[in-house]
Amino acid sequence: MSTKIKPSTLTSAQTPMGTTPGYMPGFGNDFETEALPGALPQGMNSPQKCNYGLYGEQLSGTAFTAPSHQNERTWCYRIRPSVKHSHRYTKIDLPYWKSAPYIDPDVISLGQYRWDPVPHSERSSTWLTGMRTMTTAGDVNTQVGMASHIYLVTESMKDAYFFSADSELLIVPQEGHLRFCTELGVLDVAPQEIAIIPRGLLYRVEVLDGPARGFVCENYGQKFDLPGRGPIGANCLANRRDFKAPVAAFEDRDAPSTVTIKWCGQFHETKIGHSPLDVVAWHGNYAPYKYDLKNYCPVGAILFDHPDPSIYTVLSAPSGQEGTANIDFVLFRERWMVAEDTFRPPWYHKNIMSELMGNIYGQYDAKPKGFIPGGMSLHNMMIPHGPDKNAFEGASNADLKPHKLDNTMSFMFETRFPQHLTPFAANEAPLQDDYIDCWHDIEKKFDGSSGKK
Ligand SMILES: [Fe+2]
Asked: Which whole-number Å values give the CA distances from 141 to 263, 265, 311, in the listed order?
């Protein structure tokens, strides 16, 4: 099934109607962009009268008083101020989109879990109705923790818009192409790319090529940042220049419209008479962005042993405790394996952090079977896991020549908080009941009389 729609109607100077969106390179830069010449005030933020009859408005992504190296805000110059994009609110129900704390007493989250891809449905679904929460962690009200979701989207949002006051969304497409038409411009996102939509930013989602399926990490806490590279130095992993923020784009359209807001885990609607995507120019460092995971430059073992998987971190959202992330987004992609006299796959372990993985494409080295593209796994706080029997035997007896791990791209949402399964994850999603059996045949090999090898 394929769903094609006409291109977005957003207009920008750099991206005439119906063409590919334009982007500006850099991570956390102080960007400036205008869709009409002279729309962006120069040398000041709040002139007495803005050009084109625009209204000036600030969007604050951090407290006014946040340290300057963390302070994020964007000045918008728009057709109507945001107070015109909000009216009285009516509570609505999106029963499959859950927020922490959400602990179902009938669901056991303790254990190792793995799911086949959640299948597409015959029923059409939008970005909002197609969101399925798998796990929640922390507390949305105190702005700590996260949720993981699967999205299944077949239909574009029409005269409908959304923002989450609760969270920043990290989107990892696995099938299909989506277009995020945001207040600050347009992001087209395909599999092997990611998009980040900041807290409070209005947008709608269009399906360019569907049906679309992917993973979402909903970050309740401090924003994602690049991890410190330490002794690695100034280059490799995810480089700043490869992140892309959109150029300004706007629509001047009067039509009955619905804005849905996620706020403290609840959903509300408000009705307005126009598109709220009306920012003609903006400047600042609080913006959506995308990143092509194929640009990720992994660094790893080159003689023996291998580092902790944190070496593959793409983005890290701090928790306030130094070195302990609220969420790490970690990528396992193609790379060479060259370590000598080394068990090369991930070792057996238990972890205070809880690990939710998803397969974007190909085969994961520790689980050659069963963890398939579109599938997910959860190894919760302090629950043991590691290679299955075949992966262990293969890696223990392999001829350790340089070997390229090819055709592989998986990721991990790793959080300091335990993750709780939703009833959907436990009862409706295609849970593999026999997953735990992958370790069943691991043998006792110990022979105390055999001496040193
Ligand atoms: Fe692990």
From this structure: 9, 8, 31
